[in-house]
Design brief:
Length: about 90
Amino acid sequence: MANNEEYDDTNKGAIWKSKFTDNPKSPQYTGHLNVDGEDYKLSAWKSKSDNPKAPVLNIQVQKVSEFEANHSKKVESPSDDDDVPF
C-alpha cells in the first residue's frame, strides 16, 4: 500500500475491553463500526446466562451522530436578566 492511499474502513469495525468499569451497567466492551460509510458506536456485554444456546455477547449499536447528540453536555447561555445586583 502506498503512503498516499487512505485506509478504507467501510464495512469494518473493532471492539475493545472498556476502560470504564466502575458502573455495573456500563458496557464491558466498546468500539466502532462503519456500514456503507455510516459510523456507529458499539457497546457489548457478556451474556450472564448458563444456557449453552445463549449468545456470548449482547450488543447495542447506535449511530455516532445520535450518540453524540444524546451525550453532549449542554451549556446554558446566560440569560438577559435585569436583576443583576451591580
